[in-house]
Design brief:
Helix content: 10-25%
Radius of gyration: 15 Å
Number of helices: 3
Order of helices and strands: HHHEEEE
Number of strands: 4
Mean pLDDT: 86
Largest sheet: 4 strands, antiparallel
């Protein structure tokens, strides 16, 4: 990460498992913290080794997006995005 970006990055304020989740992400850590979810894969480009994977956690109000390179064995995430979404109303 660029030093200027690192200075203002909010993840430096996180502690414990939240810090690890954003700074040392792995699928095992995601499962430990959030539980298992079926990953939906979508190639970045047709035939490309780079693939986007989305994990939906509707009850938690989260969608986790990772980007993996399928040339790695096993494929390892190299990018992480978390979207906070409204949960369906529980009526």
């Amino acid at each position: 990460m660029d030093p200027e970006v690192r200075k203002v990055n909010i993840t430096r304020e996180f502690k414990g498992l939240t810090f690890r989740f954003f700074n040392d992400y792995s699928d095992n850590l995601r499962k430990q913290i959030l539980g298992s979810a079926e990953g939906k894969e979508k190639p970045a480009l047709p035939g490309a080794a780079t693939t986007y994977v989305e994990y939906d956690y509707p009850r938690l109000g989260l969608v986790v997006h990772t980007t993996i390179d399928k040339r790695d064995h096993p494929p390892k995430p190299f990018d992480l995005q978390v979207d906070f979404v409204s949960r369906p109303s529980m009526k």
